[in-house]
């Protein structure tokens, strides 16, 4: 009516304007809405309601302050823990560099070093410690790596130019077999830590990984390339220079356990599984009985763990900590880690059937807490009827003969 009397043009209101037209106030928040007096065209709030709203507002403010205080305390605690961890790592680096590494032969097996080792080796010295712990029984030199790599490159060129029918004179293996092995290497490199994107085509470590695996097939043509090797080589590349990574890789695969698995020695593999089950039953009898009931044999989950030394199954930082202690304790720790995993998830696994157990152990949770994980491993006793791992394994080998 006003617009008609004043002659102003009528313009349709937007939905927002239409809502605002009916309000004499605009609440800025929930608290403002609680404290706001009613519009003039409505009855005023009763005193009791106004008091109630005032109390609600004050309670909201108190709760908000509590939340802020709690979050601030949490942030402060996280910062303190991070600083504490950084100080701990810094002190550990000094200890390793100044005390342990210069006196390796006399100190590596001392109680102090073993305890420090269990806590995890600082990344900056990890490669040096691994190299020393793995050793070089094969006496591989940097020059030998260069020779093996040159031979591998020559074979690659030969295969790419169509020499697949030529028989390999020095090894007795056909070029067709070698070609299949090299093709498998190419495929596996792209599958190695795909989330990191550093080993895939175009990544900074693609050629390095390809070179080490190719050189190894020339160094040990009797073993060749087996799936799982790429993950082991990749972890070493992340911690060592290329030639040193090849030396550690070759010596590591030459250990009895790794050689038994990579050469697929069924008799020895069954012995390892049997030894594992002895300690499985000793430590986790309830879960052991559940696995037996569901016909779940160790090979279903152990093979992948052992082939890749847990680098494919666990988060990389956790896998490196497993490697730390593996380099200290040898093959026994690989099976102790497996029992630690089973112990950590015992309550969950006892409620699962065959299919779900196999699926769960094939793809472990990605958010494993490291301290809880290693506490579970520490709780595993590697002794059965006064016999240690090595004694049980030897006894089983003797029985099989």
UniProtKB/TrEMBL annotation:
PROSITE patterns: TBC_RABGAP (PS50086). Residues 47-89 form a coiled coil. One of its GO terms (cellular component) is vacuole. Pfam families: RabGAP-TBC (PF00566). Keywords: Coiled coil. Transmembrane segments: none annotated. GO terms for molecular function: GTPase activator activity; small GTPase binding. Residues 120-330 form the Rab-GAP TBC domain. It comes from the Eukaryota. One of its GO terms (biological process) is vesicle-mediated transport. Residues 1-23 are annotated as: Disordered. The keyword Glycoprotein does not apply. InterPro entries: Rab-GAP-TBC_dom, Rab-GAP_TBC_sf, Rab_GAP_TBC_domain. This is TBC1 domain family member 14. It comes from Phaethon lepturus (White-tailed tropicbird).
